[in-house]
Write a structure and sequence with these properties.
heterodimer; A: alpha+beta; Rossmann fold; 13-stranded antiparallel sheet; 31 strands; 39% helix; B: 206 residues; alpha+beta; 15 strands; 30% helix; 25% strand; elongated
């Protein structure tokens, strides 16, 4: 058998001979399943544009590697369990935690697809008419084709020809870049593509990228020529292949791989896009729990040639129909439809875009560690393809194996199908399930068959100038609190400052054995010792100080208070801020008491609040300031039974206690802001349960905006959890979108809530099937929209049993 | 929703002969492929009939059975059967190729008839420095490395607070082009699992 690859030069692969140059590109895959129809259509049109734009034979290789077990090769872009962490006091613990995650990932056997597109740099082969037309136009195609046929230049290639190939590859790259996110494949990736084919079903070969195919350089007629050392590329294919009738037994560096090669039969006559029946290169491989490789090799039929073929087919179809009509049984349905379809095809080809056709073969490669497992996997693949029949041709297994190597043409006869570019694009080879950060702690895995691991780097929003805030929404017991504690714990392991505000009192993060010594607990209660702890004049950011203080004090005044009272408060606050180096609300009350009649009345009213209940937290006495807080890495702020008005209730409908509750929430947020502003370069996490209190309140959102701003510049990450998602909140979606970086939507209990949650994610809230999926989510399952806006259905996982037990909020 | 159509039936048509001159054949026509199969089988029958032993056996049948009826029946069957979704002649071609090519290949060539892999012990190749530029190499500790060329040592790039990777290169030595060899070499001690990568500036011989 002739070697399928003769030489590799950059991303140019010379296939069977040096006349058959291809350029190989790596195409970025994108999250697809949760895109809306218009975005899916945009991806589809981009693919159609790319396929039509390259005007050459092509090969699409969608290969599935095992996640994280890939080679330590530059450029394979494997995500890493790799938090951008500061080594804090819990460094040892962090390494142990990471080791658990890495071990779990290696046992997960999750699949990570990659997509490569090989484009022939040779003009597409045509019929005699097109060859003659090329020659008459004076283009070099005919000459080079003839030279290729006679085998000229098989052994060596001139440096100029090599350079021409590279320039042509650059041109193809420029065309592809207009439509897709592509880059030239690296040498190490090409090597990986070849070597991994021999290890299919066993794992990934270790490719270090040190080996580069070489060529002998010599001179002929004063010109440099290169004679590639084919054996150099052959070194990548050193596995022993035993060719059996319906499978291959490959002895490779990782053991014995059993491989079965399948070919797709007829595609459905009509399918709807988007839909899994059309998306064969996305829906099927992503649904399978083991890796399968799919290759599509296509001969490009330019529009002119395609039209000539289609017109000939019209004649054939008409002739068949005439012959059938003269028979005893008359014209068959198929015979009649064929004549119509042939005419439809001609009209399709005469469209203004002048589309080409592709004569394509789609092959599927399955690998396993044993023959029995291979048969089981092949059965699963057949089931997954459903109505599309898969053939397993006798005697063609090796040819199909080679077809999965880069830069190859179809090697099997009888399976070619003439496809439109729409049919190929609708297979959606660029789609995948993908979400999360490129590096970070293990968060969970997608709910697709491929179980793609999802990583989360808390600081991703800050580091990429995005929104840092993380929002989690879900019903009671759906997993939000567990998620919040997991994120807090991971932040703690990274050495981050953690501020945990717990209105329900069910957090256990601060009680963990390794966390407890670093915790400072400040129980926010009506305790005189804590008086002034949340004084807005002390804790509010400078630019919000006056506004927050006036708002806090005015909200304490009775509802029927005269407007003059508010003016008096405003004036007193202004005087104190202007006159005191370290102003407090206690001083404001004192200033009011010394004023005129109205001022004194206001002062007396506020003085009552300054000495009792939760409100005393907001009135610091200048003579005895509360103790400083925030020396420890973790600050735990439990505050139970804080009164709250129902979401969406107007101010007039709120009781005094509820207004106070709202003010205390604001003060806590400001307190957190103050604690977090102390160390600029350190990662800081502020976790707030019952987050709807902040999100539904315009001032709360303003504070979150401040936190957000801090998040971008000072590595602060607010984690907001809420079980209530009000209409008002969804109505504010645009303003919230500017705040939220990543969103988790856990299981919900009602269609109305599910609809609002979907709207919050920018999905169709009216879609009943989506709502029902949300309602059916068990604990830990959620819809996750990451910092880049990609949405996936994931299962959040805690790997250590001790943490699962500690973080669970379910009573035992 | 966009409707995606297939035009397979336009291209996947089987040519049939419905009539010869004014004589109609069977109602559904005769596949052209079957006619070709018939001629091939007829020639095969003639060939087999001429063989010494096989011919004697075949001559037991009347000529019309041997040279007409049997090839016709065979052609009808072969035209009707599809193997692995393909016409019989394509499947037969694959089968013949399978039987005629070596069952085992290594690096796309037939494996040696000796039939056993020679598996030498691990061999360590160490460049002797005579190349125009040093070869890139990676070395995993423990061990010591003597560097005699002008070089720069780079530690592995670290993110904030350092990275933890499954595999990593801890140290990178980039050899400078030109320059005299060092009078006193630099010795680097590598701990267990520490990884060292040696490179030269790309494209510049020493």
């Amino acid at each position: 058998m002739r070697r399928p690859i003769a030489f590799v030069y950059g991303n140019c692969v010379f296939a069977e001979g040096l006349q058959d140059a291809w350029a190989v590109f790596r195409v970025d895959l994108a999250s697809y399943a949760w895109l809306d129809d218009s975005a899916k259509r945009a991806s589809f049109l981009a693919l159609v544009g790319a396929l039509e734009g390259i005007e050459a034979d092509l090969q699409i290789l969608r290969v599935a590697g095992l996640w994280q077990s890939g080679p330590d090769a530059p450029g394979l872009e494997e995500p890493q369990v790799d938090p951008t962490a500061r080594c804090g006091p819990a460094d040892e613990r962090r390494n142990a935690y990471l080791a658990t995650q890495i071990r779990h990932l290696s046992e997960l056997h999750s699949v990570r697809p990659s997509l490569f597109l090989a484009v022939s740099l040779r003009a597409p082969a045509g019929d005699v008419a097109s060859l003659l037309a090329t020659a008459l136009e004076g283009r070099p195609g005919l000459l080079s084709s003839l030279r290729g046929l006679t085998g000229g230049g098989r052994d060596s290639i001139g440096s100029a020809a090599l350079e021409r190939a590279r320039v042509r590859a650059d041109r193809v790259h420029a065309v592809l870049e207009d439509f897709l996110s592509v880059r030239p494949a690296r040498g190490v990736e090409l090597q990986w593509l070849v070597r991994r084919a021999f290890c299919r079903g066993l794992g990934e070969p270790e490719v270090d990228g040190l080996h580069e195919p070489a060529a002998l350089v010599f001179e002929r007629n004063g010109q440099a020529r290169l004679a590639p050392l084919e054996v150099d590329v052959g070194r990548w294919s050193e596995g022993e292949v035993e060719h059996r009738a319906r499978c291959l037994k490959v002895t490779c560096e990782l053991g014995t791989s059993w491989q079965g090669q399948l070919v797709l039969g007829a595609l459905p006559e009509q399918v709807e896009f988007p839909g899994s029946r059309a998306e064969l290169m996305f829906a099927v491989p992503e649904a399978l729990p083991f890796p399968v490789d799919i290759s599509l090799t296509a001969r490009f039929l330019p529009n002119g040639l395609a039209l000539r073929l289609a017109r000939r087919r019209i004649q054939d179809a008409d002739q068949i129909m005439r012959a059938e009509s003269s028979g005893e049984q008359g014209v068959t349905d198929l015979g009649y439809e064929r004549t119509q379809q042939a005419r439809d095809l001609v009209s399709y080809l005469q469209a203004p875009s002048r589309p080409p056709l592709l004569r394509a073969t789609v092959a599927v490669a399955v690998g396993a560690a044993s023959e029995q497992e291979l048969e089981q996997r092949i059965e699963s693949v057949r089931r997954a393809f459903g109505e599309v029949r898969l053939h397993r041709p006798v005697g063609e297994q090796l040819a199909l194996f080679v077809q999965h190597l880069p830069a190859q043409r179809a090697r099997t006869a009888g399976f070619e199908d003439v496809l439109t570019t729409e049919q190929v694009a609708a297979m959606m080879p660029t789609a995948t399930h993908e979400a999360g950060s490129d590096s970070g702690f293990y968060l969970g895995h997608t709910l697709s068959g491929s179980r793609r691991p999802v990583l989360l780097d808390l600081s991703e929003g800050s580091l990429h100038d995005g929104n840092a805030t993380i929002l989690s929404v879900g019903a009671l017991g759906s997993g939000k609190t567990t998620l919040a504690q997991k994120l807090q714990y991971e932040a703690f392991l990274q050495g981050a400052r953690v501020i945990d505000c717990d209105p329900k009192g069910d957090h256990r993060f601060h009680l963990l054995e390794d966390v407890a010594p670093h915790v400072e607990q400040v129980t926010l209660a009506p305790d005189p010792a804590l008086r002034g702890m949340l004084d807005p004049l002390r804790v509010a950011p400078a630019h919000l100080r006056q506004e927050m203080t006036v708002s806090f004090l005015c909200d304490l005044l009775p509802g029927r208070a005269e407007p003059r009272w508010e003016t008096a408060v405003l004036a007193a606050v202004d005087r104190v801020i202007g006159g005191s180096a370290r102003p407090t609300c206690g001083e404001v009350v004192a200033a009011l008491m010394q004023g005129e009649e109205v001022d004194r009345q206001v002062g007396q009213a506020l003085d009552v609040y300054a000495r009792s209940g939760l409100t005393q937290l907001g009135f610091a006495d200048p003579s005895s300031l509360p103790p400083a807080v925030g020396d420890n890495q973790v600050v735990y702020l439990p505050i139970r039974d804080l009164p709250a008005a129902p979401p969406g209730a107007g101010r007039s409908e709120q009781s005094q206690a509820e207004r106070i509750g709202e003010q205390v929430v604001r003060l806590i947020a400001m307190f957190a802001l103050q604690l977090m502003s102390s160390e600029r370069s350190r990662l800081k996490v502020f976790s707030f349960d019952e987050g709807w209190r902040l999100l539904a309140d315009p001032i709360g959102r303003m504070l979150l905006t401040s936190l957000q701003r801090m998040g971008r510049s000072e590595l602060a990450v607010p984690i907001i959890s809420t079980q209530l998602l009000s209409d008002a909140l969804v109505g504010e979606r645009e303003s919230i979108e500017n705040l939220i970086g990543a969103t988790f939507v856990f299981g919900l209990r009602s269609h109305a809530e599910a609809s609002r949650a979907l709207q919050l994610l920018g999905l169709d809230g009216e879609n009943r099937s989506l709502r029902e999926r949300l309602l059916g989510f068990g604990a830990g399952r959620c819809l996750f929209r990451d910092h880049r806006g990609r949405i996936e259905e994931i299962q959040v996982e805690l790997l250590e049993p001790a943490l699962i037990e500690a973080f669970s909020t379910t009573p035992r | 929703m966009t409707e995606i159509r297939s035009y397979r039936s336009v291209f996947d048509l089987e040519r049939r002969i419905y009539s010869i001159d004014r004589m109609r054949l069977n109602p559904t026509g005769v596949p052209v492929r079957a006619v070709v199969y018939f001629f091939v089988l007829a020639v095969l029958a003639l060939f087999l009939g001429a063989l010494p032993v096989m011919g004697a056996v075949m001559r037991l049948l009347p000529w019309y059975m041997r040279e007409l009826a049997m090839p016709a029946a065979g052609a009808g069957i072969l035209a009707a059967v599809r193997i692995d979704g393909r016409a019989v002649h394509l499947a037969a071609g694959s089968l013949l190729r399978l039987l005629s090519t070596p069952a085992r290949t290594v690096a796309w060539g037939a494996r040696s008839d000796l039939g056993r892999c020679w598996c030498p012990e691990e061999i360590v190749f160490i460049p002797d420095g005579s190349d125009s530029r040093p070869r890139r190499l990676r070395y995993v500790g423990p061990g010591s490395v003597l560097v005699l060329r002008p070089h720069r040592i780079q530690e592995a790039p670290r993110a904030i607070g350092g990275r933890v990777r499954l595999r990593r290169v801890d140290l990178r030595i980039v050899l400078d082009h030109g320059g005299k060899p060092l009078r006193k070499g630099k010795v680097l001690l590598l701990g267990p699992d520490a990884s060292l990568r040696v490179e030269s500036r790309r494209g510049r011989p020493l």
